[in-house]
Amino acid sequence: MEVMQAPLLEALKLSHAYPLPGSWLQKRGVHEVLRDVSLRVQKGRTLGIVGESGSGKSTLCRMLLKLEQPTSGVVRFAGDDMRTFTAQQRKAFHRDVQAVFQDPLSSLNPRMRAASILAEPFDASGIRLAGDAGRERLAELMKLVGLDTALLSRYPRQLSGGQRQRLAIARALATEPQLIVADEPVTALDVSVQAQIMNLLRDLQDARGVSYVFVSHNLSMVRFLCHDIVVLQSGRVVERGAVEQVFEDPQHEYTQLLLRATPVPDPDAVWGHVERPRPLPVVCEEVEVAPGHFVLREGVAHEDASFPAGRRECHHECVVLCAVVDDWPAGYREYA
Ligand SMILES: Nc1ncnc2c1ncn2[C@@H]1O[C@H](COP(=O)(O)OP(=O)(O)OP(=O)(O)O)[C@@H](O)[C@H]1O
């Protein structure tokens, strides 16, 4: 049985398909990106989403952030179905759920100084920041993410990559959100800065009880930060459960493959080998192999009109993470 604590955010059987080029008029052909994805984010906990490039992680994040509509399925925040949000619920949602993306240069307005970037979420929530109290609030945010207040007058391009991502995190924290969806927040950073940002995220969670959805290719980081994990292959959840349980006893061969490709601090290990996962069977069903630990297994065939006719296997280019770990920073062992 799954732990029955009311989730902060819940996705139920989310599917998403993009129309193939030229298909609007002809009404045929879709690129199915996600299929029947279910997940839960608990209060004060972190859910990791992993999977190869193109498996649908960012699309899933956009749907959780209400930036994109699923083709079918439901997302609930604090028990409320996003499809039927009132204007007031929508406003509260955009205050309570924030995002941090991979590339802060493209997510931060290049024409705004750091102070205006941090003040923006307050404006959007109708909170007036003025005078000393306003300056103090911005200084508090900067301090929270370990940035010097002198940087408030800088433009994003005048900050280092690590400083920019700290600023993006500060902006996400401005409205005191309950959930931050972080889509590969450290991937674009120098490896030595990655550990600092990972520690910052964890400290912020300890201090503020914020929940995270954390997307990463790096399973060591997922193990460091996340409590629960969802493994995506070709847009389907092949395994989900508590991080420790899934890492200690991975049941799906794709999860096993990802874990084999994860760097471990073993100087004798040979890295750089790429293993390709087998395509998912056409018919699958989710099985609970241990309490709260779910695995996608080959299921019994049945007619499914919504599935593109003739499709037999995943059409993504499935390339598994290839870990080249010559230059791991000294802090790496903290993740292991
Ligand atoms: N707007 C779009 N229109 C059509 N196809 C799209 C669109 N956005 C994404 N896709 C396709 O959906 C699939 C999933 O993309 P997505 O970006 O969600 O994957 P991902 O797991 O986040 O990949 P990565 O790890 O490389 O960021 C890909 O095949 C991608 O080409």
UniProtKB/TrEMBL annotation:
<dbReference type="Pfam" id="PF00005">
    <property type="entry name" value="ABC_tran"/>
</dbReference>
<dbReference type="InterPro" id="IPR050319">
    <property type="entry name" value="ABC_transp_ATP-bind"/>
</dbReference>
<dbReference type="InterPro" id="IPR013563">
    <property type="entry name" value="Oligopep_ABC_C"/>
</dbReference>
<dbReference type="GO" id="GO:0005524">
    <property type="term" value="F:ATP binding"/>
</dbReference>
<protein>
    <submittedName>
        <fullName>ATP-binding cassette domain-containing protein</fullName>
    </submittedName>
</protein>
<dbReference type="InterPro" id="IPR017871">
    <property type="entry name" value="ABC_transporter-like_CS"/>
</dbReference>
<comment type="similarity">
    <text>Belongs to the ABC transporter superfamily.</text>
</comment>
<feature type="domain" description="ABC transporter">
    <location>
        <begin position="12"/>
        <end position="259"/>
    </location>
</feature>
<keyword id="KW-0813">Transport</keyword>
<dbReference type="InterPro" id="IPR003439">
    <property type="entry name" value="ABC_transporter-like_ATP-bd"/>
</dbReference>
<dbReference type="InterPro" id="IPR003593">
    <property type="entry name" value="AAA+_ATPase"/>
</dbReference>
<dbReference type="Pfam" id="PF08352">
    <property type="entry name" value="oligo_HPY"/>
</dbReference>
<keyword id="KW-0547">Nucleotide-binding</keyword>
<keyword id="KW-0067">ATP-binding</keyword>
<dbReference type="InterPro" id="IPR027417">
    <property type="entry name" value="P-loop_NTPase"/>
</dbReference>
